[in-house]
Design brief:
This protein is mostly helical and about 160 residues long. It has a two-stranded antiparallel sheet with strand order 1-2. Strand 1 and strand 2 form a beta hairpin. The C terminus is likely disordered.
Length: about 160
């Protein structure tokens, strides 16, 4: 026979082979369309912004979350001819906040600079061959054997 144990918010159910031998009597509950924890995308059916949407990448909950929410809300609910044109101050405040936390919000310029610096740094193999003369398998002063003409001396003599 199965046993049930509640631990905090969790309910642990241990079942036996006999429990699995009979068909389940569990009833499926129809999804609640108003469930606030259901993933629905950025905009909820009510037209409100879903701040829990993973598509926001945590921007709504970081140190600049308030500024982000203000700017994004202003833009979303904007009725101006050029959507969001009245939100410049909100976006400016958000940008200033983001610049105060460069370790959390790296700028595109920073990413490009880091990628370029890692591309220009010599690898350990490159630096080892540069320090050791003759470490490279071919030398610039010696001609490549594939590029030399074949020895034709005596080919016409018999």
């Amino acid at each position: 026979m199965s046993s049930v144990r509640d631990e905090g918010k969790d309910r642990i159910i241990f079942v036996t082979k006999e429990d699995h031998a009979t068909p389940s009597s569990a009833e499926l509950v129809e999804e609640d369309p108003d469930d606030p924890y259901e993933e629905r995308g950025l905009i909820l059916p009510s037209g409100e912004i879903n701040w829990n949407c993973p598509c926001l990448g945590g921007m709504a909950s970081g140190p600049c979350g308030t500024e982000f929410k203000d700017a994004f809300s202003c833009f979303h609910y904007s009725k101006e001819e050029v959507k969001g044109s009245e939100c410049l101050e909100h976006f400016r405040a958000m940008q200033e906040c983001i610049q105060r936390y460069p370790e959390l919000y790296p700028q595109e310029d920073d990413k490009v600079q880091k990628e370029q610096s890692s591309e220009t740094e010599p690898t350990s193999q490159d630096s080892a061959s540069a320090e050791t003369p003759g470490a490279d398998s071919t030398s610039a002063t010696e001609p490549d054997s594939d590029s030399m003409p074949p020895n034709t001396k005596g080919s016409g003599e018999s």
